[in-house]
Amino acid sequence: MINDVLKSAAGVLVCGLVTFTLVKNRDTIYKAAGFTSPEQIAIAETTRPVPVVKSRSSGGSITLDKNPRDGQFWTDARINNKKINLLVDTGASSIALTLDDAKRAGVRLSSLTYNIPVNTAGGQVMAAQITLKSVKVGPIRVKDVRAVVIPEGLHVSLLGMTYLGQVRKIEVSPDKMVLKN
Fold it and tell me: Which residues on neighbouring strands pair with residue 123, listed in sequence order?
């Protein structure tokens, strides 16, 4: 009977060691099998910029094609005459900039006061309100646009309603969005 107990205990120990080794080396195992680990995918999704698919301007309108990779609409905007990649977000009440994009747009970060609570997907954070001199998407330029700078929890900048609400018309179909001025 003692031999059976010892054999069972040894079996449990071996299974535990094998499981520990597999979990500890899962990235190596995924790589050897030709797969990307879920953790690597999550990190890549939140850190790399999403390329703008395609946009076409004509007259006073711009057409944005849906990005097939994430099903979202992205655009390259000119904020204070600097090119910034934005996720078009009709659910965002304001343009929301990451610290890096705010700096790129010429915002003096040292002068910001983070006193505005905003709700993000990650929870409530404090933001700083700013006014952008101009925001241009395709041929549509809006001057003196309210925006917020969010120092943490925002991985991409958002083109929200403080810009979109100034556009004369927005048309959305399953595969494209048209902004008209």
Answer: 120
The vertex-162 CA angle with 75 and 96, nearest 5°, equals 60
What are 7-44's pLDDT values in tens digits? Answer: 565 554 544 444 444 445 555 554 555 454 444 444 44
- Which residues fall within 8 angstroms of residue 137, CB to CB, at 6 or more apart? 62, 75, 77, 78, 159, 163, 179
The answer to whether 131 and 108 are in contact (CB under 8 A) is no
Fold classified for 55-180? Cathepsin D, subunit A; domain 1 (2.40.70)
pTM given for the model: 0.70
Three-class secondary structure of residue 13 per DSSP? helix
Residues 6+ apart with CB under 8 A from 49: 85, 156
For the chain, give every domain's residue range. 2-47, 55-180
